[in-house]
Amino acid sequence: MTIALSTRGLTKDYGDRPALLPLDLEVPQGQHVALVGHNGSGKTTLLRMAAGLLDPSAGEVEVMGHGSGTVAARRSLSWLADTPTFYDDLSLGEHLEYVARLHGVVGWQDRADELLEKLQLTHRRDDIPTTFSRGLRQKASIALGLVRPFDVLLVDEPFVGLDASGKSAFLALLDDAAMAGATLLVATHELAFVHRVTRLLALRDGELVYDGPPSEVDVNTLVLHT
Amino acid sequence: MSSGQATTGALALAEMRRRRTRHRLGALDWFEVAYRVYLFGIFGGGTVLWISSSVNDATVAAGTLADVGRHGPAVLGLLAALAFSAGLRGGSHGGPLALEAADVTHVMLAPIDRRHALMRPSVQRVRSALSTGVGAGAVAGQLAGRRLPGSLVAWAAGGALYGATVALLWVGAALVAHTTRLPRWLATAVGLAVVAWQGAAVAWHVPGPADTAGSLGLWGWRQHPMDLTATVVAVAAVVAGILMLGRISVDALARRSSLVAQLRFAVTMQDLRTVILLRRQLNQEHTRHRPWLRLGGGGAQRMGFTHSLWRRGWFGLLRFPLPRILRMTALAVAVGVLQAAAAKGTTPALVGAALAAFVLGLEVMEPLSQEVDQADRADGLPLERGELLMRHLAAPAVALAPFAVIAGLAAVVSLGAEYIAATAILAYPTVLAGAAGAVVSIVRDAPDPYSPVNQQAFVPPEMAGFTTTLRLVWPILVSTLGVCAVLLPRAAARTGGSVEAASVRGAVGEVLFIVAVAWWVRLRDRVRRSVRAFMAEGRSYTAAQRRQTSGRTT
After folding, report:
1. Which of these, B361, B300, B390, B370, lies nearest to B483 by C-alpha position?
2. What's the complex ipTM?
3. Phi, psi at residue A88, to the nearest 5°?
4. What's the CA gap between B197 and B78, in Å, rounded?
5. Angle at CA of residue A17, ends A12 and A21, nearest 5°
6. Among the listed residues B506, B504, B511, B486, the one whose alpha carbon sits nearest the alpha carbon of residue B414
7. Which of A3, B217, B450, B458 has its CA 20 to 30 A from that of B430?
8. Are A85 and B111 an interchain contact pair (Cβ–Cβ within 8 Å)?
């Protein structure tokens, strides 16, 4: 069994305030994991350290057996942030081309067309995404995260700002990624997604308080009160 | 990763950067750019040359020239040591590079060589630091050349070389500290040690680590080839930092990226206060969790507005972090030394003193800045805003007293013990009056409650550039006026009058100046309201007359 994501003693503190207590975790390849917890519980901190955007205070993270932030880990991991970032002088189409080519994707146009169509963004291809509404920015960010190949997809609060059709389009894209064998780790409060995963992780004040299948716990209580 | 993929990514990066440059150039309004260059030429270069040539300071005496030759390298080296120290600290806090947030997400997380991806931003950083250093050094050099032997061109060139070396020392130290992940405590310790050693070189004339860098500043007069070792060391630090770019912290880049857009906007708007605030945030300078000193309960029965605002001011001031206090101390020393230089006959030093006092004012006026930034909260108080803002000046004014003492001590060290009385009379009023420019800058940024729309929007484009330049220069002019009192005792000393009596006259003038600025803070809104009402009345009267006239003709 290949381990897609592993942490050993992973810790983060901001001075005297702990954000994530030592965490040992292994996520096998192809597993679909939901990460829940109240605001400030450490979800984003964990994901950002796994993405290589945040230096751990202690411990280590590996992505497909490579240290987070290394070239090999970056090639394997796609990161969808809760706050999308765009260049203010590139259109959505140019963003897609740029990201796809940075990752060495050949024939990226077909993939970009497919994503834009599924996310109902085809007519906005030539527009600048920094001018989009919150929901459209989220959709554009999803397209950028999925236009490139990946083994592990880390997503932080992806449903915020999405309308009903946007949510269902995103869930369908996640299903496609899962079918292709990708490992998914999604931090969310969205019950509709939590019920679809095979493993649920719950954080409270930086500590892992639940790790198991969602069927063995009252998900509503866990999601709403963790 | 295959090399083919890396090459593709690198090619995509280069191509997209070219495309973005084309986009930006295409979106530029070239007339506007030309107009800005013209304004900069007129108000920047032209003003510097005009002020420089209009100051008829005498050439220094032979004794003073010998002193400059003996102590100048150590004194100028202190600036290089400070730049090196600031670079080390900045680098350990994540500087000096700052990328766009989108670059961090899309480029830094792509499987391409980070050193390659960061090369261009690094070269841009070095270039901007170099141009600032060269420009500032050349201006300072040609000013020095008016009192020292040597041609103005040689002094400007020497100053430019010195400025370039100082700039490279700063950026090189920052890059090396960042890429080697130098711990913050170590960066601070090494920086302080270098500054302290160089300070000892100034005070006790022992050889200092930055003497060679400082000696470059005198190349307009005499050249020592050995001085070039400082430039070589600075260049080597930059090259070493660039070679280690692959080790840069993406965490730091991500943290800084969110502030970069705001910083660029503030620079575009010539908003000095916001630039300083954001630079503090970039350096992760946070207020202390625990104040240096806890204030007592305050007594509930005494909590009027004035007392509440006084306490609120001290709550903030007592949480200033140590680096900020040290920076303020350095600024106070600069005010004292530059005032002393002006007293000795180098009139342009007044501009430097004004700038230092202005920045010191921006630092200490934090309670006032916070109030201005939280305009909605202030508008909900049952007190006229002018009254509120004026009362916010009290605590910072008192907090400036110890810095005035430091400035005074620095001036006495520069001038000699015979000027203790004059310095004691002038130090506090001068520091307060110099900080008045900061008050003007902060209060002027407060939103105008009597204007429904931004008046700037109605300024014709031909005037917009001028207005923006005036916006930048006006508070500094106020600070410059505030520190001019030193010219009175200087004139008295030259004509054989009483230096102390002239100092008292200067101090009285400065106190009146401070009261005028405080009065302006208090009455600004009221005056604007009256002017607006007067203008509205005039407009309605004119409109009524027009209606009457058109009624008669029809």
Report:
1. B361
2. 0.88
3. -90, 10
4. 9
5. 40
6. B486
7. B217
8. no
- What does the pLDDT average to over B282-287? 72
User: How far is B27 from B359, CA to CA, in rounded Å?
Assistant: 35
Query: Residue B286: closest CA among chain A residues belongs to which residue?
Result: A15
* Strand A152-156 relative to strand A183-187, pairing: parallel
Q: Report the SS3 class of residue B151.
A: coil
Secondary structure string (H, E, C) spanning B457-515:
HHCCHHHHHHHHHHHHHHHHHHHHHHCHHHHHHHHHHHHCCCHHHHHHHHHHHHHHHHH
Closest of B125, B126, B91, B85 to residue B249, by C-alpha = B91
Phi-psi region of A68 (alpha: psi -120 to 50; beta: other; left: phi over 0): beta
| Contact indicator for A43, A195 with CB cutoff of 8 Å | no
- C-beta atoms of B254 and A69 within 8 A: no
Please name which of B331, B353, B332 lies closest in space to residue B344, comparing C-alpha atoms: B353
Task: Report which DSSP code applies to B345.
Answer: T
Mean pLDDT, residues B296-325 taken together:
80
Residue found by looking up tokens 């003193």 in the block: B353
**Contact present, B42 and B146 (Cβ < 8 Å):** no
Q: Please give the single-letter amino acid code of residue B42.
A: I
Helix (H) or strand (E) holding B197: helix B184-204
Judge: A101–B106 Cβ closer than 8 Å, yes or no. no
* Rounded CA separation B381/B399 (Å): 25
**Greater confidence, B293 or A26?**
A26
Ramachandran angles phi, psi of B341, nearest 5°: -60, -40
How much of chain B exceeds pLDDT 70, in percent?
84
Q: Give residues with Cβ within 8 angstroms of B157, minimum separation 6.
A: B138, B141, B219, B220
B421/B425 Cα distance (integer angstroms):
6
Q: Which amino acid is at B230?
A: A
**Which residues of chain B lie closer than 8 angstroms to A53, CB-CB?**
104, 109, 250-251, 254
Confidence of residue B451 (pLDDT cuts 50, 70, 90): low
| pLDDT surpassing 50 at residue B1 | no
β-bridge partners, A23: A10
Tokens representing residue B45 in the block:
């270069």
Contact check, Cβ <8 Å, A87/B102: yes
Q: What is the pTM of this model?
A: 0.75
Confidence tier at B2 by pLDDT (50, 70, 90)? very low
CA distance B187 to chain A (A): 18
CB atoms inside a 10 Å sphere around CB B95:
26
